[in-house]
# Entry
Amino acid sequence: MSEWLPSASPQSLAARADLLQALRRFFDDRGVMEVDTPLLSQGTVPDPGIDVFRLPGEGDEPVDRYLQTSPESAMKRLLAAGSGDIFQICKAFRQGEAGRHHNPEFTLLEWYRVGWDHAVLMREVAELLGTVLNSDGWQIWPYRTLFAELLGVDPMDDQTTLTALIDLAQSRIGSVPGGLDRDAVLDLLMSHCIEPGISDWGVVFITDFPASQAAMAQCIRVGDVDVAARFECYVHGRELANGYWEQTDVDVLAAQLQAENTRRQQRGLPQRPMDERLLAAHRHGLPECAGVALGVDRLLALRLGSETLADVVSFDWSRA
Amino acid sequence: MIAFLLNGSSTMPNFSTNEFKPGLKVMLDGEPCSILENEFVKPGKGQAFNRVKLRNLKSGRVWERTFKSGDTLEGADVMDVDLEYSYTDGEFWHFMDPSTYEQYGADRDAVGDAEKWLKEQERYEITLYNGTPLAVTPPNFIELEITETDPGLKGDTAQGGSKPATLSTGAVVRVPLFITEGEVIRIDTRTGEYVSRASKS
# Structure
């Protein structure tokens, strides 16, 4: 019986303590305030790619609560209430996401910059990585350009049919699960071809995602297409951070959330209740801002050169 | 038993991708497979996938497949049992469960390379699929008698060269020059290499 033992080494635990201090110092130096919001909420996200842990209501607590999948909703409510620039280091939970680079309970660093857009925020993420990973420089690739470069396909051209994308995936990967919609095939290409393809590119920001993958980001017109004003940051081909120029228009946001619930329905997933308190905060007014969530466990794994998150969390999912 | 066979594996439970652990036996394209590896992959946002390596238990081939996370596969009615080798009639190699005396006939495909290590009353791991032997795995080490080898040469030492020796099962292995006909030796069945003289019993 060695399951009582931590999965992380003593050195790795010390490195985690160092990293947390370095992160707090980074934001303290920049006048960003640390906040602490609830892990268990009555609202949750309808994102069909995320499976939430639900605590069913019973007895004196008849209302279902959800373990947060990120602190986004609560932090936006703080922003709407006038908090100014804020950051948080907290636990987030996503059911079923267990693997070398995933742990269903993980540590997230999330921060918001009032008055910024995603382009300015990308620079700050790069500066943070320079501080904690000693990374040198970074590249910015629009989603469309990167797919053209690595796969020779334009994912945003209407002429690129779903069948063509599936054929491409079949030839590149050999095995394509059935019943994938367009975004799911793009996700397959992203995780199986693009990620390995940029694994020796250092720090890479992928930006201007398809509008259908906007989540809570604004959509902007770039050239002849609408794109989501979002970025994902990859280091050595591993996804580390996800940033948005936040959607402030409450009607657009409500429509986006509704569209995600519809997509859940199409994929046979249960519906999620609308996060009415988030929508109410938006109605009051979310300031123009950009926000990003960064996986702290993955950051530590990159800092230590670890191949699996189990090496950098005190007790991984199997031992927790 | 017959009814069970006719039902096929329809009585087996389904397993979801997050239950795919190495060693789990599942049906894929109508073939029984054993999971070797299961990697969860997910882009920053969006659809999650599981990249799975499986061994086809019939052909021995390794397959790589990508599944949507949450997809399921039917379990395969596959189990490993320890059986004693009895005899061969040329078409089937017969094994017996020493506790129930139940007999199982393995065909040539199932016996495969294990044939050259089959010794009566020795125990083998038999993989049963729907109750029929699918594969035979010999113990890692087995003791067999030498039926034929050239006489040892003068001045041999334990460090000397080697020579071929035919075993009671028909297998031919390399043995040190000092080993003689009629001796029982210990073989590593995974490599087919001589390990030592058998311990005196």
